[in-house]
Write a sequence for this structure.
């Protein structure tokens, strides 16, 4: 069973694509008219020109809106599409779930003609996010077992540019750091269910840290400590777009 068959049932409820992040992704896709979305989930951020969604979880595929691109139930490590299937391939908030990163990136390079766009997070920055650093350090330890260093991605892609994607204070896509200025949200089990890091850790492990957060919020300690955040519009919580421009000659897979 794919991991998201177990943890993804409520994904579309809290993980609504954010328009500002969508604009960044679509700008990075450039003039691509045919796009394959790998680790596509429920279809967030897919541009109109999406020709295939590749996704291993049937539960996630079932949450794709009617009329979205056809889905292939498959993993990044072995994509049942021919070489050079699309102008661009995108893989958003997914590479840290892959069992064989090298094989998966090799497949992206094989099926993309011009460009690969990956949205990921830099663990060195992301693990300093206040929620992890101050309240749930065990979650950061668990995350270190799966997080992907950005340098490693760039190397596997054969070179790429890296862009910072700040998280707006009212971000609609409820990923880990989306609620950086809305701390009460992390006390909501439904919000946590949409964040794979929390969905994969037992509540017993999270409970003491969440209880401390609840205390700090009710006595005003969190607000005193994080007064600097309250006036900010966006935060760099480590999210990065990694964009590789491929230099393929006709019919040739660049390695
Ligand atoms: C956090 S969700 C992101 C979904 C979507 N890209 C988005 O931005 O909303 C991670 C997705 O990666 C998928 N995934 C997990 N392992 C994968 C693999 N080996 N190959 C491709 N996708 C995978 C999961 O099933 C899940 O749908």
């Amino acid at each position: 069973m794919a991991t998201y068959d177990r943890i993804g049932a409520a994904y579309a409820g809290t993980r609504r694509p954010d328009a500002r992040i969508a604009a960044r992704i679509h700008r990075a896709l450039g003039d691509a008219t045919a796009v394959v979305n790998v680790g596509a989930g429920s279809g967030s951020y897919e541009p109109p020109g999406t020709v295939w969604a590749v996704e291993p979880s049937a539960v996630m595929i079932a949450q794709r809106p009617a009329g979205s691109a056809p889905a292939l139930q498959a993993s990044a490590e072995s994509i049942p599409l021919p070489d050079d299937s699309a102008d661009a391939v995108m893989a958003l908030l997914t590479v840290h779930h892959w069992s064989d990163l090298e094989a998966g990136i090799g497949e992206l390079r094989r099926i993309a003609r011009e460009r690969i766009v990956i949205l990921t997070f830099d663990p060195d920055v992301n693990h300093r996010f206040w929620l992890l650093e101050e309240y749930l350090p065990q979650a950061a330890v668990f995350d270190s077992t799966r997080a992907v260093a950005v340098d490693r991605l760039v190397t596997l892609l054969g070179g790429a540019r890296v862009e910072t994607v700040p998280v707006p204070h009212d971000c609609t896509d409820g990923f880990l750091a989306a609620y950086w200025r809305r701390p009460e949200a992390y006390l909501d089990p439904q919000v946590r269910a949409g964040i794979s890091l929390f969905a994969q850790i037992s509540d017993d492990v999270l409970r003491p840290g969440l209880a401390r957060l609840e205390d700090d919020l009710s006595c005003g300690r969190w607000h005193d400590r994080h007064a600097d955040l309250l006036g900010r519009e966006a935060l760099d919580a480590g999210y990065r777009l990694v964009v590789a421009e491929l230099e393929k000659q006709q019919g040739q897979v660049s390695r």
Q: What stands out?
A: The two ends are 32 Å apart (CA to CA). The longest helix spans residues 203-219. Residues 3-245 form a domain with the Rossmann fold fold (CATH 3.40.50.150). The beta strands are 35-38, 50-54, 71-72, 86-92, 112-121, 161-164, 167-168, 234-235, 239-245.
